[in-house]
Please model this.
Amino acid sequence: MPLLFSYGTLQLKKVQLASFGRILTGTKDSLKGYVLNQLQITDADVLAKSEQVFHPIAEISDNKNDQIDGMLFEVTDKELAQADAYEVADYKRIETLFVSGKKGWIYIKS
Model:
């Protein structure tokens, strides 16, 4: 089962229900070498689900000690595709290794 890391609105139950039709299960985890910035959202569907104009967006940091915290969720392949549909074009999905040693997907700045 794929793992998907969320540091932002995908942690919100209302977004999970609207995007996947269920509440996701997962564990807390972190990713080193990244920082969070803010992205203004203009996509009407994403705004309707999150009800937030600004979403966090992960970017590679110059400092290897920088870290972002979030949740590593268990998702199906279908839900991973649904998450792709939720995220706007400013995000791209990459696979990486988290502090826990688990490998999973994360959306970062394109």
Notes: The chain has one domain: 3-109.
